[in-house]
Design goal:
With 477 residues, this protein is α/β, with parallel strands linked by helices. It is built from 19 helices and 20 strands. A hairpin with a 3-residue loop joins strand 6 and strand 7. It is globular, with a radius of gyration of 24 Å. The two termini are 46 Å apart.
Length: 477
Amino acid sequence: MILVIMGYLPNVQTISYIVYLILIVGTVLIILTENRNPIKTIAWLTVLIFVPFAGLALYYIFGQDTRKQKHVTRKYYDKIKNLSFNELVNDNDVEIIPECANLIHLLKTNNSSPVLQGSKVEIITSGKEMFEKMLEDMEKAKDHIHFEFFIFNNDATGKMVKAMLMKKAKEGVTVRVIYDNVANWKVPRKFYYEMCAAGVQIASLMETRFPLIQSSKINYRNHRKVVVIDGNTGYVGGMNVANDYTINPNWLDRHLRIEGMGAHGLQANFMIDWYSSGRHWVDTRKYFPPTQIYTQNLMQIVTSGPFSEYSNLLQAYINIILSAKKYIYLQTPYFLPTESLFEALQIASLSGVDVRLMVSKKSDSSYIDPAAHSYYADLLKAGMRIYEIQDKFIHAKAMVADDYISVVGSCNLDFRSLETNFEINCYMYDREVALQSKEIFFSDLKHCKEIHYNKWIKRSRWKKLIESIMRLFAPLM
């Protein structure tokens, strides 16, 4: 009104500019007051400054923090994860070696993860072998199959698994499937409808059918890979349901087949995800049948994601790295460490621990590689050894330390896995399993070329500049 009286009527362009300025300032204030990791805050502010229009849209879709939203009540979480275990697990009587005590206590505190004793563990490095074993176990299912994967492709591998799930459902076995709908957006809806028609129950965790309305969910993807058969046999690791894992000889990965109490740990986490997707349970106890003690193996099944109060897996990695006395061997397809993980790796290396990292020379995400390379120089200078696989792509997410602890799961060593996605890892406290993991690491070294500090720092200034620029956006990748 005042502007009209004064004889000045803003045009549409001016009004749009004022509205946009208000949105930008409001978004900046929201980002600042969320009290996130300063590195991630700076990354989002950089995006808003340098690509303002696109940056605002990207933040609205990918940047909102929903960690504090309680999608699962603590009461229900404890009911599933602890009630059934309390009747079956008395980990107060489990003998724990001193080197593992602090880590075990951490994971019991930040993730309510009990120590599971006596599981039989088989480490599988071949996708073809893993699917053969999994399908064989599914064929034997009598009561239920619980199936959760990040990627469930409509290719030869996916159709083979789909046929088995439908077959068992028609036989009267309860089959439940959880998939990530954003990762599988190219898969036609008919693929799932056919399974539903055969009696397979299907759900999607954090489903986003309307991206603009449900934008806050898009950034939080269900990256877990879990199978539980009749409550006694389970699978967990890095492999997805796709041809890359079955017919591509240049694809290296790691998966576990678990019999015994470890399967109960996978079961509890599947049940939480099923409930989180909007489904309910009548009786949880029936899914935790009595099981025998196969070995002296101790393990914890640990999850992390936007439902978690803490960054559980990140805390576990840092604990292991700073507790190691002899060596730490890591394999990951994507290396974009958080500042805390980066510092922990430097500290361990500078302390004389043999820290080795194995990655691919070229990942399947070209924009990630320059950002990853920006971390190498400081780590190499600190004494860490870095190996790049030359002719293969390593998709394994694995860690082994000091011949007493090994880790296999779905979590990459990047911001997205450590802070954002729904992930699941298996922590095993067993010398035999650790030695197997160590042997696999050295076997994979045959395909690698080591990066040396003196040669690495001679890269062109142009490459270093690109790497430094891409590193600014690492927290958002």
